Amino acid sequence: MSELGEFLKAKRAAITPEEVGLPAIGNPRRVSGLRREEVAQLAAVSVDHYTRLEQGRVTSASDNVLTGIAAALRLTDDERAYLQLIARPQAERRTGRPPSRVAAPVHDLLAALPHTPALVLGPRTDILAWNTAATALFLDFADLRPEHRNLVRLLFLEPRIRDLYQDWEAVAAEAVARLRMDAVHASGDRRLAALVGELYVQDDDFRRWWGGHGVRAASAGRKRFSHPLAGPIELDWQAMNLNATPDQTLVTYTAPSGTPSHDALRFLTAWTNKPSASSTDEPERIQS
Question: So where are the chain's domains?
C-alpha cells in the first residue's frame, strides 16, 4: 500500500461515526472508525475513487478531492499539508545526499551563546554541531559515535535523554510526528529508512506512533525537563532554518528572564566550563 493509502486508512480508523454526525446503527462494525463508503459520502467523492486512492491504485488526486477528504477526516492543518505532499508524486523530493558542512560563522554563533543551549540539526534530526550549553542541558555529544548523534534516536534509545523529560511520551510522540513530516521530503534516503527501521524494531512506542501516521510541522514550543543537576526547568525551543544551508536547522532553548527556569539554566550553563565541541570538525562528519 502507498504512503497515501496508509495515511488515509490510519486517519479513517481514528474517527467514529458519531464524531462526524453519522449514526452508528446496524450490525457490529467490522472496521474501527469510518468505512470507506462513509468517508466518500462525507467528502462528496465516488466510493470507487476513494477506494482506489486508499488501495494505492491511484496515487494522485485533484485539489477538490483532497479538500473534501481532509474535511471528512477532520485533518489538522499539518495533516492537510502532509496530505497534499504525499498526493503529489511529482513534487520535488530531497534525496539522501550528505548534509553540507556547518559553516564557520554558525560555529561562531553557537560559541557566542554561552547561556543558550543550541544545536544544528541536519536531515533526519542528525546532530551536526552544538555548543557548551547544549552539553550542559543534554549530554556531551562528542562522547557518542557520530552515527548515534541523532535527536530522535537519542530520545528513544538513550536513557539519559529519555529520563530528562518530565512528559517524555508527549515529547517523543511529537518527535515521531515531525520525523514523518520530514520524511515526505526524503524519498530514497537510506539513512532515514535505517533510522526508522531501527527504532521500529527496538521500541514499542515508536512502532505504535509511527503506525498511527501522526504528522506535525511545529517549529516552536515548550519542553519541561527534570535535570539531575538543575532540577525542574521549563524551556522554550525554537527551530530556525539557516538560509545559506537549507538542509540545516538551528534549534535554541531559552527561558523567560526572571523566572526560576531562567535562573536554573544560568546555574547549569555556568557549571559547565569545557570548550564547545562545536569548535571541532568531528560533528560535521555525518555521512549519508
Answer: 3-86, 104-284
In 29-163, where does DSSP find H-type helix?
A: 36-43, 47-54, 63-72, 77-86, 104-111, 132-137, 151-157, 159-162
- Do the Cβ atoms of 240 and 250 come closer than 8 Å? yes
> Residue 40 and residue 46: Cα distance in Å, rounded?
6
Strand order in the sheet with 127-130: 127-130, 118-121, 249-254, 231-241, 220-227
Strand partners, 136: none
Distance CA 132, CA 150 (A): 17
pTM of the model: 0.80
pLDDT digits (tens, 9 = 90+) for 51-93: 998 888 876 688 899 999 999 999 999 999 999 888 876 544 5
Per the CATH hierarchy, to which homologous superfamily does domain 3-86 belong? lambda repressor-like DNA-binding domains (1.10.260.40)
Which amino acid does the sequence have at 38?
E
- What is the grid cell recorded at 91? 513534487
